[in-house]
Amino acid sequence: MNAAIPLPAAPWTPAEFERQLRAQGAAYHIHHPFNVMLNGGRARPEQVRGWVANRYAYQVAIPIKDAAVLSNCPDRAVRRAWIQRVLDHDGHADDPGGIEAWLRLAEAVGLTREEVEDQRHVVPGVRFAVDAYVHFARRRPWQEAVCASLTELFAPAIHRQRLAGWPEHYPWIDPAGLQYFRNRVGQARRDVEQGLAVTLDHFRSVEQQQRALAVLRFKLDVLWAMNDAMAVRYGVTA
Ligand SMILES: O=C(O)c1cc(C(=O)O)c2c(n1)C(=O)C(=O)c1cc(C(=O)O)[nH]c1-2
């Protein structure tokens, strides 16, 4: 923790605590130069493909991470709601799910399913960052893993950026491939409601609230490190 910033004398109110959590969005990967390039329309096709192929490692890890949260959580009411996240990604009944939607995005940008599913393009830094998130969810108290998912507070904005810009920037991508981003805007909003309720309720003391901020910063670092690794591999076009 930064010693120059004194601890608050008393716990924040829930509203102030939520404000402090949201303020961490300044370090969201929406601001990473690689993402700024991608969503600003400056990426070459191989950079778009590199991002989609690497992000697949994150997509397939998310339901594993969520299953880790379930396995650590003794609260039946939380599990009942949380299990929806696994279904969102893996699919259920007629819904093919988010991983399938990501594979359709991959095909829309010119990748084959095979080269994405076998993760041949995934660079070491992305793999290590994704593994760190799954490991965190397995080892830490489930409330901390819930708190770590709160980067989703900032995700609808980045999905909307893609939906607004990509069709114009990248006319060579079939817009049907962008369905994943459309689905996530609503899903993330619902996820955040649940994640925030758990976090505001659980992290109550000054020390716990500081811990929640540190957990959220860890997750922001996971996403930032993924972008760093992709920027090194694929470059950032000025
Ligand atoms: O495209 C993105 O920038 C982005 C970011 C995040 C995030 O902030 O963690 C998620 C997603 N997408 C996403 O699609 C998703 O399903 C998701 C689940 C989670 C999580 O931590 O449980 N984050 C995210």
Structure explained in plain terms:
Ring cyclization and eight-electron oxidation of 3a-(2-amino-2-carboxyethyl)-4,5-dioxo-4,5,6,7,8,9-hexahydroquinoline-7,9-dicarboxylic-acid to PQQ. Pfam families: TENA_THI-4. Its EC number is 1.3.3.11. Pathway: Cofactor biosynthesis; pyrroloquinoline quinone biosynthesis. The chain has one domain: Up-down Bundle (Heme Oxygenase, Chain A). Helix content is 71%, strand content 0%. It has helices spanning 14-23, 33-40, 45-72, 76-90, 98-108, 113-117, 124-139, 142-148, 155-169, 179-202, 206-234. α3 (45-72) runs antiparallel to α5 (98-108) and α8 packs across α10. It starts with 13 loop residues before the first helix and ends with a helix. The mean pLDDT is 97. The protein binds pyrroloquinoline quinone. Pyrroloquinoline quinone (PQQ) binds at residues 62, 149, 151-152, 155, 158, 184, 223.
Briefly, what is this?
The chain has 238 residues and is an all-alpha fold.
Task: Give structural attributes.
238 residues; globular; binds pyrroloquinoline quinone; single chain; Heme Oxygenase, Chain A
Radius of gyration: 18 Å
- CATH superfamily, by name, is Heme oxygenase-like
Shape: globular
Residues in helices, as a percent range: over 70%
Spatial separation of the terminal alpha carbons: 34 Å
- Structural class, from helix and strand content? mainly alpha
Total separate domains = 1
- CATH architecture classification: Up-down Bundle
Give the helix tally.
11
Function: Ring cyclization and eight-electron oxidation of 3a-(2-amino-2-carboxyethyl)-4,5-dioxo-4,5,6,7,8,9-hexahydroquinoline-7,9-dicarboxylic-acid to PQQ.
InterPro entries: Haem_Oase-like_multi-hlx, PqqC, PqqC-like, Thiaminase-2/PQQC
Domain Thiaminase-2/PQQC: 21-228
Family: Belongs to the PqqC family.
